[in-house]
Amino acid sequence: xxxxxxxxxRLLPYKMLLKGTATMHELATRILPDNAxxxxxxxxxxxxxxxxxxxxKAGEGLxxxxxxxxxxxxxxxxxxxxxxxxxxxxxxxxxxxxxxVEKYFDLINHYGHPYHTCSAQKGIMGxxxxxLTTFDAIVTATSPCDxxxxxxxxxxxIKNYPLVVADMPYLQNDESYEYMGGELRRALEQxxxxxxxxxxxxxLKKHIELxxxxxxxxLDIFELKKTVPCPVGNIFNGLSSAAQIxxxxxxxxxxxxxxxxxxxxxxxxxxxxxxxxxxxxxxWPYMLVYFSIELCEWLDRHLGMSILFDxxxxxxxxxxxxxxxxxxxxxxxAKKTMNVPMVKQSTSLYQPFIEEMIxxxxxxxxxxxxxxxxxxxxxxxxxxxxxxxxxxDELGLPMLMIDIDVADTRITxxxxxxxxxxxxxxxxx
Amino acid sequence: xxxxxxDAFIKIADGIENPYIGEWKKAGKKVIGxxxxxxxxxxLHAAELLPFRIRSTGNEDTDLGxxxxxxxxxxxxxxxxxxAFKGGFDFLDGLVMSNCCDHARRMFELFDLKIFTxxxxxxxxxxxxxxxxxxxxxVGFEYYKNQIIRLKQKIEEKFSLSPISEETLATSIQIYNKxxxxxxxxxxxxxLDRPKLSGSLALKIAMxxxxxxxxxxxxxxxxxxNQLNDFEGISSKKKRxxxxxxxxxxxxxxxxxxxxxxxxxSDFLCFGTRNFLEDVKLRSKNDPLAEITERVYYRxxxxxxxxxxxxxxxxxxxxxxxxxxxxVIIQRINNxxxxxxxxxxxxxxxxxxxIPVFNIDRENFQKDYSRIxxxxxxxxxxx
Lengths: 429, 383
Fold this sequence. Notes:
The structure holds 2 protein chains of 2 kinds. Chain A is of the alpha/beta class. Chain A has 2 domains: 4-199, Rossmann fold; 202-316 and 349-428, Rossmann fold. Chain A is built from 18 helices and 8 strands. Chain A has helices at 4-8, 12-30, 38-59, 86-96, 98-111, 119-129, 146-151, 153-157, 174-195, 201-224, 235-246, 251-270, 294-303, 326-337, 343-346, 350-363, 384-395, 414-428, and strands at residues 64-67, 82-85, 137-141, 163-166, 280-283, 305-309, 368-374, 399-404. In chain A, helix 13 (294-303) links the parallel strand 5 and strand 6. The radius of gyration of chain A is 21 Å and the shape is globular. The N and C termini of chain A lie far apart (66 Å). Chain B is an alpha/beta fold. Chain B has a domain at 4-165: Rossmann fold (3-Layer(aba) Sandwich), CATH 3.40.50.11890. Chain B is built from 16 helices and 8 strands. The longest helix of chain B has 25 residues, at 166-190.
């Protein structure tokens, strides 16, 4: 008979995350001065509660459903299951255990997986080579990139995890949303068959409604960021990237964003900046550096540079209507899915992306852009120069481009990144 | 055996522009570029456009392409962009793009914003974008069919054409089916016990075929078949190789392989076999556009189609049997995620079947092949 611990151990990556997060939380609350990094501490509290909850549920024997972030977490709450985002686990491990996750990148590379693919998948793929993962099913949309479509078959063909694929059109219009809505519904039904449950759409609605409320809070936070100095610490961006996915559809997410909103309001009222003095307001059109939690704080405190947005933190999706028929709900779910960070930019042509950057820079009084070009992201491989030209022509703003792997320090390490940013800021001040 | 390298038709594969394009344009007709075989050429042909499959053959640089594409992208696509900046595709009157892969699909914007706005184009040529599903399902087909219907309407509108009739489409289908049949015949001659042509020559024929009007290509292919039939075949102890992976638009890699003791008698490449395996099934004359779309969508896929690996693997296994393959070489252009990941799985699955397999990465054009040659020689000796 399988005991509780064995059942829990199906979720070993979460046990690793729990330990790492709890340790970091303890350090932040016991060693640092009070309220030194409140956005970080609040975020960790939500994540710790979530990981523990998932481990407990694993102990009860609930099925584990792996998913790509292009298949929103909250949709999986149509089931009594534990959703595990493949990409978020890899990234979070790189943030918490930087010398550990690289082992798994190497394991999968040695298996023959190309080095230039995304570390977001490589972490979990490597862990699965080491038999540290268990999935009752895995689901992904066919976006945002070739990496996704090319990497996920490994889980099916090599690891024998049942794989569900929801096709996502690479064009934003109503016809595509309708098609995608059908794909989402089909995917949920297929997952249901794999884990022996019927999708519970009433239950799903409740989680979506919670997400709708959180969406409004996020918009309020984004509104706060228009204030000079920015009243939200940079570390929020990193934690928010994690919270959006790990905590989606859960009360912990609402709590986190509410707390950050209140914190930001207080700072705005006091006219203070988390780092002391705000000297530069930056937009990161693409990703943060996930392997370093420290970078955000360093930018705030040492350079006085605020990060107004990164790709996971300019999410302006519309709410999903739950008070009409299911077709309407799935249409809206599809629209939301096609507008989650990265997916939105990937399923559109470049022009809307560039226009949005220009608009954000104007509305939020940005001074510069910093573009982290990740070696895996070929779907964005031809945007940086076009964006650079557009923001120079339209706004007269400069853009720094840094080649990185967002989760693997060995491509460009933290010191090199800091040095590049420091030199860049010297040209601005 | 005739030296086909001097054959005027086959020499088309050595570069980009060719006399057929000149003649076509002189007649006041238009040329439209495309990258990927998921674009239904028959539709373009029926619109009296010459579909020209973009490649970079003859170009040895990526310099100008590198300005707009980061170094982590595919050198084939960067080379085509570089060539476009140098004027290599100034004969184009339009471009049809799809979301074929992450590298190539962004050529839609780059051509639209940077190439077609150059002074060499007094009026900006139109660009068309066709989203293609990434999985093969019947609902996916319906979605794709609608996109192709829309493409047809846009082409008619942009080029001021009267509606393309079903009869015209049916005629194009016949010409293209004939073309595919002829290519299959040539490729069958390559797979004989005594191959009547090398893999390098086969690739050149297929590439030349993508650069000229198909009715003329058909005449050339028939001529070549006749000439090949007169040839008794290559008698040698060369190792029979199947070549799989990323796009190959120059013969550098195959030449190295065939000069090292191997001969490519089968392939699974997008300028090669995969492009002409299946015909359009013209069941009725009522909806030829749907039938054209059906072929493109349901045919033997490339790795851009997700969750279709098993079907691809089945084809490869059959081909290994049929063509008496002694070893499989799977290659990818650096940074090609689709083929890179597919190759990993193929390598493991082929090894499970005890089939000698060699997995290698390369750049689209390499000045120095010595490192690759050493590895290929070692593999061929090992077989």
